[in-house]
Amino acid sequence: MKSLVLTGTKKMEIQDLQKPTPKADEVLVNTKYAGICGTDHALYNGLPGSANAVPPIVLGHENSGIVAAVGSDVKGFKVGDRVTVDPNIYCGKCFYCRTGRPELCDSLSAVGVTRNGGLEEYFTAPSEVVYHLPDEVSLKAGATTEPLSCAVHGVQLLKLTPYQKALVIGDGFMGQLFVQLLGAYGVHQVDLAGIIDDKLQLNKDKFGVTNIYNTTRDKIPSDYDVVIEAVGLPQTQEEAVEATRKGAQVLMFGVGKPDQHFQMNTYEVYQKQLTIQGSFINPRSFEDSIALLASGKVNVEPLISHELGLEQVADVLEGKVAGVSKAVVKID
Fold this sequence. Notes:
Blueprint: E1 2-8, E2 11-16, E3 26-36, H1 38-44, E4 62-70, E5 82-85, E6 88-89, H2 95-98, E7 109-110, E8 122-126, E9 130-132, H3 139-142, H4 145-156, E10 165-169, H5 173-184, E11 189-194, H6 197-206, E12 212-214, E13 224-229, H7 234-242, E14 244-252, H8 266-272, E15 275-278, H9 286-295, E16 306-308, H10 313-317, E17 327-330
Parallel strand pairs: 10-11, 10-13, 11-12, 13-14, 14-15, 16-17
Antiparallel strand pairs: 1-2, 3-4, 3-8, 3-17, 4-5, 5-9, 6-7
């Protein structure tokens, strides 16, 4: 079967691998779409993702497809089912799993990170992380369930009420997902800050954003109850803290480099009684994410800018393809 294999840092090649056979508790998925995200950029460049990827490995942790076979112990799935897959597999035995925080699992493994993922024609996953896609959700949209679930987890870590004013910093795919999610969770005003006018205007026209700020020329006011940082740069992390009013919450969602730091006024954190919250992966968020997609409360397809073949993936990860907001790979 045709597979795109990460063979080393900044090295990928298409290989003909043997089609895997599912174990007793596994499902074999015929991949239809696989998303490309910031984690793939990191892994391609030799940096860690949710876990370390050791080449040779097939990336692709945002996937949708059709069930091609099921293991002998699998219940609830049959050949032909449309599915999406939560890549994260928890041990269930460590301190964090046993205290209800599986996302912090000491032995986390992941489809497309520590085991072969969706950038190939077929991959396997434990049935416990496979989810049915309803008819209302296309396979293309279904491949974005994983990034949406990460955003859902971030939102669920916050205390949200309708009166709040929220700001999202970052007009990339994740920032634009947060815009829709905050509205779906009842926040009455959502504003967006970024650097690309077309994206900012799209979210104002189509997804109910009240105010937009191009941070190359506009100053962000400091009167927000909720600020979500979805970029991961020191400058935007500092802007997120500065944009708060008293009693605000800041979600640090954007992924910085492992050795990165940013500065903040610690007296301001004290005086404003700020809550600064990190967010890591997506525990127990797939059901909500699928429901949001099926209901239309989150519409991802207008945010997908590129549909690729396997041959184009390395160019995207190298930054050679301009204007990528969200790219998905169609697996033939």
